[in-house]
Amino acid sequence: MHISDPHVVLRDNGALLTIANRIDSPDSSARIPLAELDIDDAYRTHRGIVLPLVAASLTTVGCALFGGHYSAGEPLDPVFVFAPHPGFEPTRQ
Description:
mainly beta, 6-stranded antiparallel β-sheet
């Protein structure tokens, strides 16, 4: 399995971590819901928005990606999310 192009989708009742579906949609337009996210902290910096150590749990579809070795709702390692402000250009050192 290859996990690529992660996106965080904000919803009224929480957030969802999706990944590109490279098998059914090689152009990555189709998304697979991998994990439910429980965002309880966020802050802004001059570079963007930070969501530190977001709790994540595997979705039913995510279970299938791991061959059924894990159950839906199984906790995953916390996720760190950084969303840069539009136009932010990181500097190279």
